[in-house]
Amino acid sequence: MKPWIAGALGALTVLAGGAAQAADRAVTQGDHLVANFAFKSGETLPALRLHYRTLGQPKRDAAGRVTNAVMVLHGTGGSGAQFLSPQFADELYGAGQPLDISRYYVILPDGIGHGGSSKPSDGLKAAFPDYDYDDMVEAQRRLLVDGLKVDRLRLLMGTSMGCMHGFIWGEIHPDFAQAIMPMACLTGPIAGVNRTWRRAAMDSIRSDPDWRGGDYAAQPALGLRGALNLLIVMGAAPQYWQAQFPSREAADANYAARFAADFPTRDANDLLHQLDASRTYDPSKGLERITAPVTWVNSTDDLINPPDLGLAEPAAKRLKAGKFVLIQATPDTRGHGTHTWAKFWKKDLVDLLARSEPK
Asked: Which phi and psi (to 5°) does residue 79 adopt?
């Protein structure tokens, strides 16, 4: 299988592929700059950089409107690059697959504070604006409408934080997406255990003496380690990890490998802002405003959004054209990360595209 190749920032094209495809796929990367972007906090950035990747080509109707755009939104700490991984891309983008890029124009943005988009570690550190999810959704809209000239989505998908963005999109811009597929989230405020682990991770960073109010010369390693440990545990897949790492030695090796791979990629200011951005999230009062067909997918082994809270099913019934799918845990599902393993929900995506097909 050919590897997915990461490109440099800026407008460029790279080749990517997988065993399931007969031909290479072109991945285009670029940046859209928004001048004087105003945040809900009252802060502004003179230039907000929004990085993105696209696959496929836009198709336009007689009026010049793009008709085949699909936007996929990543989770906390991620980027659009995660949707180029084989477990996602090789199941969806190839010939005859649900998001066949000969038919669809797939847009993979990096959210504010993430990936190649403007973020604290660019230089502002803790002085970077205190963005929230509403700010991130507005930035995504500006990227689509002003940058890519897309004013209608055939499909909006989102995982974890991107799942929550999907519900915000559906409420604020009910006519923008013809279908919405949010995966791995709930529709109430970030509270209970979900808020507690986030607060604990943020406090771990802030309590490190090397934090220095965010003006550190070197990463506050102890605080960042504590925060990352919480991320690793909350993202665990109990059955899968038990099957794959059935001994103390294997479990220790799994933890060590995950930590070693993740820690060097983190910045404390970036992570703090990423976690805190969820503080104002609460679409629970406006679910009836979502008019597009929705397929909402969660999994039973998701420690961040546990099904035994009983919150998802009543909320899903308030959606005008909603369907809730709960994937049952197996030794192969991936906990909260099941959202990026398309084999578990690909049929539900096919069903959503069919039932949202324009008449």
From this structure: -160, 170
Short-list 333, 353, 349, CA closest to 341: 333
Helix (H, G, I), strand (E, B) or coil at 224: helix
- Reported as half-sphere exposure (CB side, CA atoms, 13 A), residue 314 has a value of 7
Beta bridge pairs of residue 108: 53
Q: Tell me the three state secondary structure of residue 76.
A: coil
With a CB cutoff of 8 Å and minimum separation 6, the contacts of 138 are: none
Tokens read off for 226: 């504590």
Q: How far apart are CA 181 and CA 322, in angstroms?
A: 10
Q: Give the tens place of pLDDT for each residue, 69-99.
A: 999 999 999 999 999 999 999 999 999 999 9
In the structure encoding, which two tokens stand for residue 128, read together?
Answer: 């970077």
The CATH architecture annotation of domain 193-276 reads Orthogonal Bundle (1.10)
CATH superfamily of 12-192+277-355: Alpha/Beta hydrolase fold, catalytic domain (3.40.50.1820)
Residues 6+ apart with CB under 8 A from 76: 160, 161, 274, 275, 277, 278
Tokens of 187: 């529709």
Comma-separated ranges of CATH 1.10.1740.110 domains in the chain = 193-276
- Classify residue 199 by its DSSP letter: H
Phi/psi for 249 (5° steps) reads -65, -40
Q: Give the C-alpha distances (Å, rounded to integers) separating 72 from 156, 163, 177, 244, 327.
A: 6, 9, 12, 29, 20
φ, ψ of residue 53 in degrees (nearest 5): -125, 145
Range(s) within the chain of domains with CATH label 3.40.50.1820: 12-192+277-355
CA distance 52 to 72: 11
Model confidence at 110, pLDDT cuts 50, 70, 90, reads: very high
Measured between alpha carbons, how far is 247 from 243 in angstroms, rounded to an integer? Answer: 10
> pLDDT tens digits, residue range 240-263?
999 999 999 999 999 999 999 999
pLDDT of residue 25: 67
- Supply 351's token pair: 């069903």
- Is the full-model pTM beyond 0.85? yes
